[in-house]
């Protein structure tokens, strides 16, 4: 089993092959899948340029992808695996590689945690991780899903003085400001969002915002359409804290869902941190129900434990 090289000069080709692999694997697991093309796009370009080389395909001798990792030594090592023996073998090589990368980030002899996967369900992959000393996480990122059609998506209601429309190129500064306000601790940059808008799977019609009376973006919902499977993912959605409790996030989500139907979507996906009950309630109010609550795995590594 060999890993495809992921040099920056080949980043577009790797991303395209990765997107095709993720869409193919979606057919096996549906909304319970480890990854949607929206996860791939947001995870790669949302932290541009640091994650351009984070996507790696693990292929068999015939060049057929058997596994995918998205990992830059921080946060979670996302892992998508093709069902079957070859996929499990590729996953073992991928996890071994991730352990080495993670262990190399440890400093001062301190241990470091490696998280693998977000919704690991394959019995073979679970057994692999168990055998390597990983343990199932207590909390995770549940998946919620709903069927969509123009007739059954509520018409959004917008607060007085606000308007809903697609994101404009000159909105980027306030769009980034709204995101960073909605998600404290994040540090999205304008140049990263500009790069994201150039991503091959980005559709400007599905990047919807609520604009304040002062003409600033204050709420947002970016949707990603997997055209092969007709599934649209919300990633991300939120509202600047100064404009909450006006129903703006729900309004932009509903507006974006209706637009996605026009683009061919027949179902929608969203995920949230399991401890975020407010997010779950919001998505339930938009017609979503929970379809998968499986979690990922974590292993504590010590620098000397990996050669």
Automatic annotation (TrEMBL):
Residue stretches making up the N-acetyltransferase domain: 162-307
Signal peptide per UniProt: none
Molecular functions (GO terms): acyltransferase activity, transferring groups other than amino-acyl groups
Keyword Acyltransferase assigned: yes
Keyword terms: Acyltransferase, Transferase
Family matches, as Pfam families: Acetyltransf_1
Record InterPro entries: Acyl_CoA_acyltransferase, Bact_Acetyltransf, GNAT_dom
Name of the protein in its database record: N-acetyltransferase domain-containing protein
Organism encoding this protein: Ilumatobacter coccineus (strain NBRC 103263 / KCTC 29153 / YM16-304)
């Amino acid at each position: 089993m060999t890993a495809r090289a992921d040099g920056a000069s080949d980043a577009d080709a790797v991303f395209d092959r990765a997107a095709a692999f993720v869409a193919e694997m979606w057919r096996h697991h549906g909304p319970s899948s480890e990854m949607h093309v929206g996860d791939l796009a947001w995870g790669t370009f949302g932290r541009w340029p640091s994650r351009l080389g984070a996507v790696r395909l693990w292929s068999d001798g015939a060049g057929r992808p058997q596994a995918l990792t998205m990992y830059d030594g921080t946060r979670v090592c996302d892992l998508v695996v093709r069902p079957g023996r070859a996929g499990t073998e590729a996953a073992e090589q991928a996890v071994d590689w991730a352990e080495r990368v993670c262990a190399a980030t440890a400093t001062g002899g301190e241990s470091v945690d490696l998280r693998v996967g977000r919704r690991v369900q394959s019995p073979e992959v679970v057994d692999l991780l168990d055998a390597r000393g990983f343990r199932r996480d207590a909390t995770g990122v549940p998946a919620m899903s709903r069927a969509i059609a123009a007739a059954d998506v509520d018409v959004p209601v917008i607060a007085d003085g606000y308007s809903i429309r697609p994101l404009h190129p000159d909105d980027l500064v306030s769009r980034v400001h709204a995101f960073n306000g909605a998600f404290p601790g994040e540090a999205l940059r304008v140049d990263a969002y500009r790069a994201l808008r150039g991503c091959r799977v980005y559709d400007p019609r599905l990047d919807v915002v609520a604009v304040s009376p002062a003409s600033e973006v204050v709420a947002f919902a970016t949707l990603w359409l997997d055209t092969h499977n007709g599934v649209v993912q919300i990633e991300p959605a939120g509202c600047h804290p100064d404009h909450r409790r006006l129903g703006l996030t729900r309004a932009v989500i509903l507006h974006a869902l209706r637009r996605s139907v026009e683009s061919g979507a027949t179902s929608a996906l969203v995920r949230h941190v399991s401890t975020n009950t407010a997010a779950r309630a919001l998505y339930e109010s938009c017609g979503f129900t929970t379809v998968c609550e499986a979690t990922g795995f974590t292993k504590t590594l010590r620098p000397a434990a990996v050669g």
